[in-house]
ABC transporter permease (Brevibacillus borstelensis AK1), 467 residues
Amino acid sequence: MKLRTALTSVGVMIGTAAIVAMIALSLGLKANAVKSLESWGNLTELDVEPAFYIPEEDRVIPDDERKKLNMAAVQELKAVKGVAAVMPIKRIRGESKLKVGRREGYIELVGVDVRESAAYRKDEIEKGTYLTGAPQEVVVSYYVPREMRDVEKEKREARMRNANKSGGGGGEVYFSRRGGGGGGEEGPAPFDMVGKPATITLTREYRIDDELKLEKKDVRVRVVGQLQKSENFRYGSAVYAPLSLVKEMNDWLNRSRGEEFGDTSSRRSRDKNQDEFVFDEITVKVESREMVESVVSDLKKLGYEVWSPARELEQINKFFFVIQMILGGIAAISLLVASIGIVNTMIMSILERTKEIGIMKVIGATVYNIRWLFLMESGFIGLIGGMTGLGLAWGAVELVNYFGKAGGLMDSLGFGGGGEEMTTLAVIPTWLALFAIGFAFIIGLLAGIFPAIRASRLSALQAIRSE
């Protein structure tokens, strides 16, 4: 009987281990997929632009009906339930270069609403502070200092290389490093540009007698902060400045020389355009990840198109839910077989202990006592099998994670670039461990109901007389 009970518990153990391991694998893959998705951007930030097409109506929206990203749109977006902040963005429409000391590099100049963005962007500052609203302040992204070049040094190294080559190539070879420390993300440490004065050089084109001319303008600024490193390379070379400063620069870039020399018709046309100031992009900050789906739906109803990594999150959740159901269902078959084994074991136990049941009834045991005795026995068979199965599943998960990492499986699946948080293929959360133990115990109880009822209905006299 002991061997039969042990084998029954082993059946529960295998079924529990299979379910836990299968679900742990799907949970781990889902978590890694979500983290990979987060590397493309914050899941609570939505990039909003005017909708150009209505799929339901199969219709292209005309220009006069299309939304404009102006201040009226900002106020409309702020009124949407679940929106915590609306951050309009304006970019420089021309070539811009940042100079700090002898170093320089091309940048993407982005104008932001300081008041709207400060509450969220200030936590992303690695050095210095975020924009305070002063017109000549800028904040650089993490990669900007690493892309700044010491032009004079590169010219000297080039001259030395040429001299060495002309001397027969026996001299020492010099290599130019891009950015004076920007030789890639893992190159030498870049210089610290926070707190230093800088110059933004703008270049605009104009024609005189069909001859192309270039004109430059220097704008003095001060670098007050640097953002933290981010896996989102979308704004890798971005320099953030107040909207007013970027608007002023765009005005100069778009202004023709005729306006500067008194062409009133050109000036009137420009003033008319400035009355309707349109942003290049609006970023909406949602209060929580759970509200993203409803906010996206509301924005689409208002006539906006929304891009965010969170839009893919719903599809990921659906996909892995199906995977969990399939894997869990396959593993549950073994647990069903184990529950049938429990029923068989308990029925055999009744047949072997019939006289014992009769004696217990004669000395005062009630139907309730007999029933609960067999129910608890079957329940503990399931509990012991569940606990040992959980231990077996934990060992299997550790092996999967070890060989997955050692064999490069994480990289082949695209999960290798997310840092230390993405080094596991499978994970057993606390709720899954508790669920597995409780589920195995309940399976044991359910499997013992029929044998327990049968035992409680035995006649005491017939049970005593049985051999």
